[in-house]
Amino acid sequence: MKILVTGSAGFIGFHVTRSLLNKGHQVVGIDNINRYYDIELKYARLKELGISKDKAELLHLGCTGTLYGDQFQFIRMDIADRERLPKVFEREKFDKVCHLAAQAGVRYSIDNPEVYIDSNVVGYANILECCRHHSIQHFIYASSSSVYGLNKNIPFHEDDQVDHPISLYAATKKSNELMAHTYSHLYKIPTTGLRFFTVYGPWGRPDMALFLFTEAIVKGKPIKVFNNGEMERDFTHINDITTGIISVVEKKWTNQTKLYKIYNIGNNQSVKLLDFIREIEKNLGREAIKKMLPIQPGDVRKTWANIDRLIQDYEYQPITDIADGVKSFTDWFCNFYNIPKKETKA
Q1: Long-range Cβ contacts of 47-56 (<8 Å, 24+ apart)
Q2: What are the residues facing 98 on neighbouring strands?
Q3: Does the pTM exceed 0.85?
Q4: Which of 141, 169, 314, 316 is catalytic?
């Protein structure tokens, strides 16, 4: 198939793009390469996808344009560009769209609301409009566990109420689900939303806890442990997330399939934050300097995904435990940044 992956230079988008290419699909990637975090990491991901550093340097200078690999085409643009985006759809004639581009981060949304509206609402609406006018077979998009807000039902189920988001980021993701529902109803577009639960692993984002903790520990700096460590997350390894996304992308939609679907995609268990930190310490051979702090605005104490629906419809089965998952990241981090490990603790 010919598949559009938005956010292809991002953490999840990169992994999904690489997997689709390995499975023989033709992929067009779109990313605006914004400066929310280190763009050199984004260019390093593109290099892994066959876009050389020399070619990427053209875009590093701020040019817009299109770069070609053997099987992968990369377009630097903003999905909020209402003039240019439809031209891409008209030219490329995609079979399916995997929409992973978004302004990420719960805490960043508290101080920078406008960028979330531009990307997660305006940009998302532009993608939906293009799908509407270009006969897209299936629109798959990233939602988030943050839509559950202060939900007290554990584990979180897709039928739980999600009408009380506690961050603007969560509100934009809830709006994405509502917009998808409307387009499915009005224009008969098959849409599938995936509520991601704390994705981690190699090539991860520098603003996420695993990256922040690892970087601070190797530098001998304190790590911020919110809610005094009384936090639990359904940490989901990127390999499991990618496998789940690819299953949804590749499965043929039939007339008997419900047009609008929402799924949790997680690891189906909750891990204590302090246990998570201990795994990082063990793999780095260093002890963290912990700065205990109160819970942050927009944070929730515990997340845990009920994944029964995804198992039933797509035979989804996460297989990466937290020990192996954290090790895969710390190994990548130390190799990528050329940091020697100390002796691993027993």
Answers
A1: 48/14, 48/18, 49/8, 49/14, 49/17, 49/18, 49/21, 49/74
A2: 5, 140
A3: yes
A4: 169
Distance of CA 336 to the CA centre of its chain: 20
Is 169 annotated as catalytic?
A: yes
The domain tally of the chain equals: 1
CA distance 300 to 15: 27
In a domain, 117, yes or no: yes
**Span 242-254, pLDDT tens digits:** 999 999 999 988 7
Flag whether 31 is in a domain: yes
Whether the CB-CB separation of 265 and 314 falls below 8 Å is answered with no
Provide long-range contacts, Cβ within 8 A and 24+ apart, for 103-108: 103/34, 103/36, 103/169, 104/10, 104/36, 104/169, 104/205, 104/207, 105/36, 105/169, 105/207, 106/146, 106/167, 106/169, 106/170, 106/298, 106/299, 107/167, 107/296, 107/297, 107/298, 108/36, 108/169, 108/207
Cα torsion through 28, 34, 39, 44, rounded to 10: -10
Residues 6+ apart with CB under 8 A from 111: none
Is 334 within a domain? no
Which residue segment(s) compose the domain that 185 sits in? 2-200+236-268+305-319
Query: At 116, which CATH number?
Result: 3.40.50.720
**Per-residue model confidence as pLDDT tens digits over 264-294:** 999 999 999 999 999 999 999 999 999 999 9
* Angle at 177 (CA atoms; ends 176, 179), nearest 5 degrees: 65
**Is residue 143 assigned to a domain?**
yes
